[in-house]
Write a structure and sequence with these properties.
The chain is 42% helix and 19% strand. The chain is an alpha/beta fold and 380 residues long. The chain has two domains: 195 residues, 3-Layer(aba) Sandwich (Rossmann fold), CATH 3.40.50.2300; 129 residues, Response regulator (Rossmann fold, 3-Layer(aba) Sandwich). It has a seven-stranded mixed β-sheet with strand order 7-6-8-9-10-14-15, with helices on both faces. Strand 3, helix 4 and strand 4 form a beta-alpha-beta unit. It is globular, with a radius of gyration of 20 Å. The relative contact order is 0.14. The N terminus is likely disordered. The structure holds phenylalanine. The site of phenylalanine has 16 residues, from helix 11.
């Protein structure tokens, strides 16, 4: 977090939250909603987008009179894309600010850090976009508004062997990211079951700048495609260096690729590559088209990415659950979120399953001519 303060151990946060139930968060004239996001640092576009989507939802809800007769107040903490900061942020939001629920994060490693604190404090947490299965395994107060990586990994494996007709594939994984490791594992399982062979499996550390050694080994294995389950800043450099080395086969990855910065850094080296993600601004559904217009109007003509949409959906899901619960009390709100069925999100219609994960479709994007183009939807 940017502001200086002392980290509060999780058990103290829990005691504080329980001690103040009834007079904090939901008890005043406003309902306080906490959000932690990577507004700065390595994955700044993830947090900026999810925050803007969340903010737009809160503003729309307040313009329509709020929830349970009260306006919503969004309190946002920047975790700077850094390990250690999510715990600080969430401890502060819960024990000092007295929020009734937490929205965040996009990156799985950072959601994993915050989830046990929310669980112990009995404050529901909804991750808009973290896809690693372990996030919601932190406990029954932790939810997500997105699909999980067993689904995404299998869809990517089918995309490889089916659409790309690539059965000999190399894989390059970020060992510093729970998301990357989890997606690599899920992809591999289904890809091998489909009859595929992994020509090379190599690692990097998120934030590395030089991938030439790994890419040279990968090239020597003659793959038909390279699977790169990483985040956009690393992926863009990988694509540039692959091109420089004459490794010209398609690269493909998951939702971690999604950022306009991927194209800003990678430029023409990104053309001809593919990724899966949660939704696409040009997917043509009426809800999406209306959202794109509202978002552009609010944020200076900017086209929303998947994190913006999921930020919006997670805030709307929380508001809908507070209405259905009729209260902001932790256990009742928890039950209402868990009971979510056929929620009409901008990202698509979804229900939460018994594991508190959203069951919903994903989309594939092709990068060509320096832009992202929606190509296909895969249903669960
Ligand atoms: N799913 C990624 C993770 O779990 C985060 C992400 C979501 C990235 C949506 C881009 C788009 O870490």
């Amino acid at each position: 977090m940017k502001r200086r303060h002392f980290a509060i151990p999780a058990f103290a946060a829990a005691i504080a939250a329980i001690g103040f139930t009834g007079c904090k968060g939901g008890g005043g004239d406003k309902i306080k909603v906490g959000e932690f996001a990577s507004l700065t640092g390595k994955e700044a576009t993830f947090g900026t987008s999810s925050h803007e989507g969340t903010l737009l939802a809160i503003e729309e809800l307040n313009a329509a009179g709020g929830v349970l007769g009260k306006k919503l107040e969004l309190l946002t903490e920047d975790d700077q894309s850094k390990a250690g900061e999510p715990a600080n942020a969430v401890n502060k939001l819960i024990s000092k600010d007295g929020v009734v629920a937490i929205l965040g994060e996009v990156a799985s490693s950072r959601s994993l850090e915050a989830a046990p604190i929310c669980q112990q404090s009995q404050i529901p947490m909804i991750s808009p976009a973290s896809t690693n299965p372990s996030v919601t395994q932190a406990g029954d107060y932790v939810f997500r508004a997105c699909f999980t990586d067993p689904f995404q990994g299998a869809a990517l494996a089918n995309f490889s062997t089916g659409t790309l007709k690539a059965t000999k594939v190399a894989m390059l994984t970020d060992v510093k990211s729970d998301y990357s490791k989890g997606l690599a594992k899920c992809f591999k399982e289904k890809f091998l079951a489909n009859g595929g062979t992994l020509t090379t499996e190599l690692d990097y550390n998120g934030g590395d700048k030089d991938f030439k050694a790994q890419l040279t080994t990968i090239k020597n294995g003659n793959p038909q495609a390279v699977f790169v389950p990483g985040y956009y800043t690393d992926v863009a450099l990988i694509a540039i260096q692959a091109k420089d080395l004459g490794l010209t086969v398609p690269l493909f990855g998951g939702d971690g690729w999604e950022s306009s910065v991927l194209l800003d850094i990678g430029k023409e080296a990104m053309n001809g590559h593919y990724f899966s993600t949660h939704c696409a601004a040009d997917q043509g559904t009426p809800k999406m088209t209306a959202f794109v217009e509202a978002y552009k109007k609010r944020f200076g003509g900017k086209v929303p990415d998947a994190m913006a949409v999921l930020g919006y959906d997670s805030a709307m899901l929380l508001a809908d659950s507070i209405k259905r619960a009729g209260t902001t009390e932790g256990p009742k709100l928890r039950d209402a979120i868990a009971a979510t069925k056929d929620f009409e999100g901008v990202s698509g219609k979804f229900s939460l399953n018994a594991d508190r994960d959203a069951v919903k479709a994903l989309v594939f994007i092709k990068i060509d001519g320096g832009k992202f183009t929606y190509t296909a939807t895969v249903n669960p």
